[in-house]
């Protein structure tokens, strides 16, 4: 039982999400007994006020009476710090326009917050009840910059009642996302400030795009009133299908659940039901298991030309059977197209690694009953060590090993098929174009390159989580600017893609042009349909391996169950609020010189920014 | 089974040290089978060469033959990274004076090290076999500064055989500590470089002070040859009492054990025996349990005058029953000395916190059947909140609460006994002198202060661990110099106290002098009996509470089972090698101005350093 831990430890093989559930308890007579009872009902934490209304406090009249509320000794500090979400008195109104109410509220707020710090609770919960919360934002932000170690949970309704009120005019409608957005902007998007959403009634569940935008926010918990439960045929309380679907949307970002009730009795049914829901809604997918635990984690793109890959990287690659089966299909179709007068077709695998594509080529040879000669070109001597072993024990003399860089190696013969897997998350970002332009020297003029082509895509992105990850994980030897001028490969989870992705750059192989130019420039325009926060751009790619055999990580065409690539994110320096209906425009460059290739980017609309990463000063892909 | 994890997870209540044991395996035919077998015997990891002597490698003759050794695919990357300590070929001699041997060795060394990196093993083990290892040090250091993520284990004998060889003259005797010390100095004391010690035969076990010095080193493992085991009366192999005592010395710093054997058969007996030894030698001490897990962890000293303590700090304090029982004894002796004509003696507890000393005073009143009036002065409003509750439910009107700073409060009457617990790890370092000088205003002229006096102590310290903790945990907003000019409170474990502690500063209360001066200066001289590395000074204190009732954290007089205070460490900027027989001299100041108190210190001998923390620029204790 704890409000902090989110995951089961390794070794728990049960395939489900952990549904961490808290119970809202209003002014229990004995907090200790209330926690004990919540624990027995199966709850993981308790949401409650730390001051009791019995302790009326009038702080502004003379010397304050020192008694604040419950004594800290009713729980052990470990219990305070694990199980208690401290809800501040909701009637405190530091944004009141009535001066004495404002002053009294401020004194009460600071006293309660100080007491929460004294108790060491992990979370302080506050509610937004109106549009303007400037005073509250200032007080919370002041606390944050002085090194507040706990978290603030800011509660708003997922949909403001005015949205569906028959008596509210269009100009009276409130958007609770705007309340939240204003508030966390005051607090400089601090990672200690999360949002808690009150679930709406079924009939007021918002549109998909509104929910999408919430998924791009640091949602910490959903509040579920017990009145939303309906009785199933077995007489057990369950949520309606639409509520279940709504909850499923939030499963990926691991929110917690707060059960709110006015009734007494057996409250275990609700936490049991959520536990059951976690099992039911969790989509078990063995292929996705080994990428769990790296959600929203920043990875620097590989530099395979200058650094040898290590054995664990090869192993992760090789686990993606979908990718290599697809490659094998492409090699098969290509081999079928090699003219019959070529007695023994030559297949060159460039960047062979530990040999998965060599194996795919040999599989095709076996399937088609057609003898082939395979060259495996690999510059990493430690991967060659493995290939030697595989030649000796698995492949025999069908395969010739070459321990050299594909850009300088001089082959004894030319190839019919050139196979490579040099693509990064953004297609060309691991210098596949430069490598294959070099390697095609040993491809016959009518030879086939697998892949034949690849295209990069971009889309505007809202992810406060990623903005904070970049800001908070600066290595000691880098400036913050350097960190924002660098793309990251990320298993994106807590994000909102603001508009559909659009094609950016395309490369084709072989490229027999007299002059090959791999520099590129393009401007893309996206329509922003609802107000949101732009924090950067997310990149994808797709590739035609051969004919109709393709691989893709573009969200709309993503190859099923393929996990080899995560999206790439190009950040902006600062989050930018973009109004619904406006246009987001970006300029994007691929630039190169003798030593390196790099990207530059800048926002053109709705605001112009300076060009990021000029001259590749913060990030580049080295050629040597 | 893993070479990395050292502790049982929380919740394992078995009272013993985990004895993590590895098996040295020389050139197994099948590494996979060897690991499987070691696992079944109960070992946690395996020490073995990653290249096989069958793969003769002649790197300098023309193009290197690419095959290095075993293929990486015989184990999964997770297995390489958890279970394998890679021992480099011991015949590699990069420090050979024969040029071609040196060049060939360097090529082999770099290839093996590169292969170890490729495999992702957690540890690379190398052996020092002679005095001068400059080339090896340079190669390892070059790897370290390029971001080596694994560890190096450097193996030396705990005692060099020349020390007890009858044919070695005094000038031919080698000190293996010097070998190790030279090597890690080349590597700038990098935390990734640890030492592995070969256990000596019983008759060559070194002196206590030599072992003490090893305890101050980053010892990662002890090598135990199976030939050291003797058969007990049950026919089971055990270690002799002297070997057991030697191992017990290393228990506190959590070394691992490597079993080295030439024999075949059931090797589980050795790991079972070490497991048993862990249970047998572990000194269970319930009072020490709650300080486990903070070994060698840097804590910043409290600033109780400017920051309110939080509930978990009070709770930790209150758990130390030894301390409060001793306080109660002192209060009892003091109350017995209050003249009988004082009808109701007044006891003022200043800095009452959540009331443990108030409770002690009331206990004494009950024991002596003498009514007392207790004032509890406390400035923290959240602690006062607790005290209000205790007055209401436990103490009633015997206790008067005062929510004010003891330095400004004006009491209605003067006290017979003034009780406080304002002492830090260095005695005066939480400004007890300044606070009690202020608070004695409300002590009767013949009144008693508990404590009556306290004294700080200093001793020279070797702890590479702490030097590295300071260097590697620099907060983003501080310079490295600031970090070295700050004292830290530390539960010291991996350290060597170079000489006995000496008294530094003493303070007495009440202090009725006309002019009170709490500034101090003293020079201390310590004799260094054996060559070692000075990294700073460690501070302690003792206090006379009243008459013969004392508390102490001085190592020679430490109050049994008291855990409220850990030692304090004053670092130096750089480790300094000090020869056996030389003198270590330090100048130490306590300085104050209107706003703050601070310490300055500098080494006078064997080398002069600049004065650390001038003007309190990096660390001071604030008065307001």
TrEMBL record, chains A, B:
The record marks 317 as: Critical for specifying symmetric addition of methyl groups. Residues 290-450 form the PRMT5 arginine-N-methyltransferase domain. Pfam families: PRMT5 (PF05185), PRMT5_C (PF17286), PRMT5_TIM (PF17285). S-adenosyl-L-methionine binds at residues 314, 323-324, 378, 405-406. GO terms for molecular function: protein-arginine N-methyltransferase activity. Residues 453-621 form the PRMT5 oligomerisation domain. Signal peptide: none annotated. This is Protein arginine N-methyltransferase.
